[in-house]
Amino acid sequence: MCGIVGIIGTQPVAPLLVDALKRLEYRGYDSAGVATIEGNHLDRRRAEGKLVNLEARLKASPLSGTVGIGHTRWATHGAPTERNAHPHATETVAIVHNGIIENFFSLKTELQAAGYAFHTDTDTEVVAVLLTQALDKGLKPVEAFRAVLPRLEGAFALAVLFDGETDLLIAARHGPPLAIGHGDGEMYIGSDAIALSPFTDQVTFLEDGDWAVLTASSAAFFDKTGATVERRAQTSSAMHMTVDKGNHRHFMEKEIHEQPEVMSHTLAHFLDFSSGTARDNRAPIDFGAIDRLALSACGTAYYAGLIGKYWMERVARLPVDIDVASEFRYREMPLKKGGLALFISQSGETADTLASLRYCKENGQHIGAIVNVPESTIARESDAIFQTLAGPEIGVASTKAFTCQLSVLVSLAIAVGKARGAIDAAKEVELIRALTEAPRYANKALKLERQIEKIAGDLAKVRHILYLGRDTNYPLALEGALKLKEISYIHAEGYAAGELKHGPIALIDENMPVVVIAPHDRIFEKTVSNMQEVAARGGRIILITDEKGAAEASIEAEHVVVMPNMPEILTPIVYAIPVQLLAYHTALAMGTDVDQPRNLAKSVTVE
Ligand code: M6R
Q: Is 2 considered catalytic here?
């Protein structure tokens, strides 16, 4: 899940490539590089670490070519060093790659036997060397590419530059997404439309298996058989998206604070607040005709799905099977034809989620997708899109996308419940009236930030933390633990509070903070009992509850975060905010890189 770009035109492209790469840094930031044609020859600059290092390298030693490619890396094969940074090049070819060439080892062995040398530990280099071999055999660049492409196995998006060819760029997609931008005397390649948004809003998304041959003024498209195909450009909405931090220190902070607004937009898209009815914007799926739902996603989106399962089963009386997509795609789940499968993804590009979607499609399911990026592959391969209106989410730790996913899921549960006759009009109005209040409660939750910041100061001193919750707040406990570990690097685990006594209680001592998410809901008393078990063993309780819960908890907690009382259906949505703030401020206190935590990338387009 690296980011790749390419530009071909008449002005120096290196600064433009770096600008585009900045918009792709969410895909990886282990190293970066650009290659252009200087005079008539390939030249490149690469640097370990983030783009600022590449920028410094280019400042010291600029490139002035008018055709070039660029890359920001999330390391798979080979350590994140300059040597392994893209573009990978021979004397005649430079290449950037997102994905994995699965048969690289056998190809490399074959090429080495033929006398070709390798200089990196990457899988990508084999593509550059294969192309070089084809050129050495006398093939012209386009024909060399045509000959090499069928030899590559795995998932890849590629952009290729050829020595001496100042008016040629080649791109290919086999799995990970790739967009071609059409400019005025300039053409572009990008891993997504946002990367290209400063240059053009006219974008062609390559279909799986497609490849494209670009000059400064033209684009020719070919499908996986090598036949010429028509691929229309569409107007991308990415151009209007702003991606700056405003007055905030981090994108994550900004995105946490945007939640009241974006959840309000999302809810209003699916629910008519004035009449208290769910909007009928689910075509072409007949919710009344389904009797089972298969749900799949990864990471935070999966936890949103787990909460959605509670709602679908409780509100809509619809049984739900849910699994993380990396398991779902291989577990050969039997599916009854005509069922509904729903996939949740902020990026819409997550490889495991996409593979699960394709499995369900092959098995005759209707496909629905809750996605934040409407032009994404998952969106484009679905029968129905339920878009989260979160806007671009840049922080690697997902925050506003999560609460928007929950907003969609709860709205769908109401719509499905209504279509299946599981709820009557009065219940529908009651639930929707409650949801109308979600943004207001979210604003109130944000006001607790200073108190949460103080608690975070204490958490930053420990190495392990437990999160507990019940019912819909159990998946939120899982999400809280994920959020904390991914940005603060503190080990955290989430458990269903009732499971504590089946094992994890052995971990409790006076050094173990336990964050308990416990609104005063139908099973509050049960959660209080679990807290008693923690308190009896000296555990340090951080209780996130409401006014009623704080009054009735009868427990010596180290900290109590008191949320406003609110309808039960809202709690996982609104309580996500203190949970996110706790992770954010703990990471700040630890001094980690909040927006770009180590080893992670925003969009996971490899298995
Ligand atoms: O783009 P997706 O929603 O499909 O991404 C899924 C996960 O990779 C993502 O939620 C990940 O777990 C986040 N880093 C969590 O904050």
A: yes
| Architecture (CATH level 2) of domain 446-598 | 3-Layer(aba) Sandwich (3.40)
In this structure, which residue's CA is closest to atom 9 in ligand 1? 299
Whether 446-598 and 3-240 are alike in CATH topology: the answer is no
**Among residues 254, 309, 400, 602, which one is catalytic?**
602
Tokens 């499995």 belong to residue: 359
**What H or E segment, with its residue span, contains residue 31?**
strand 31-38
User: Nearest-5° angle of CA 409, CA 414, CA 420?
Assistant: 120
The answer, yes or no, to whether the previous bond of 564 is cis (omega within 30 of 0) is: no
Q: Which of 115, 118, 93, 90 is nearest to 104 (CA)?
A: 118
**How far, in Å, is the centroid of ligand 1 from the Cα of 582?**
19
- Residue 333: what pLDDT? 87
Reference 505, options 531, 526, 478; nearest CA is 531
Q: Which pLDDT does position 241 carry in this prediction?
A: 62
Q: Which residue has the tokens 């006219």?
A: 202
Closest C-alpha residue for ligand 1 atom 14: 397
Beta bridge pairs of residue 48? 31
Pair 442, 573: CB distance under 8 Å:
yes
Q: What's the gap in Å between 23 CA and the centre of ligand 1?
A: 18
397 lines ligand 1 (CB under 6 A): yes
Distance CA 247, CA 245 (A): 6
Structure tokens at 5: 């770009």
What's the confidence (pLDDT) of residue 242?
58
Q: Which CATH architecture has domain 3-240?
A: 4-Layer Sandwich (3.60)
SS (H, E, C) 273-309: CCCCEECCCCCCCCHHHCCCEEEEECHHHHHHHHHHH
Given the CA of residue 399, which atom of ligand 1 is nearest to it? 16
Helices then strands, each counted (H, E), the chain: 20, 27
Query: 2, 298, 360, 404: which is the annotated catalytic residue?
Result: 2
> Ligand 1: which residue has its CA nearest to atom 11?
299
pLDDT at 260: 93
pLDDT number for residue 13: 97
| Ligand 1 atom with minimal separation from the 604 CA | 8
> Do 406 and 309 form a contact (C-beta atoms < 8 A)?
no
Task: Give residue 270 CA to ligand 1 midpoint distance, Å.
Answer: 23
Give the pLDDT score at 274: 80
| Residue 108: closest CA among 87, 81, 92, 88 | 88
With a 6 A CB cut-off, is 487 part of the ligand 1 pocket? Answer: no
pLDDT (0 to 100) of residue 272: 87
CA 380 to ligand 1 center in whole angstroms = 19
Q: Structural domain boundaries of the chain?
A: 3-240, 446-598
pLDDT of 573: 98
Query: Known catalytic residue: 254?
Result: no
The per-residue pLDDT for range 469-503, each reduced to its tens digit, is 999 999 999 999 999 999 999 999 999 999 998 99
Q: Which residues of the chain have pLDDT under 70?
A: 238-243, 280-283
CA of 118 to the centre of ligand 1 (A): 35
Give the residue, by CA position, lying nearest to ligand 1 atom 16. 397
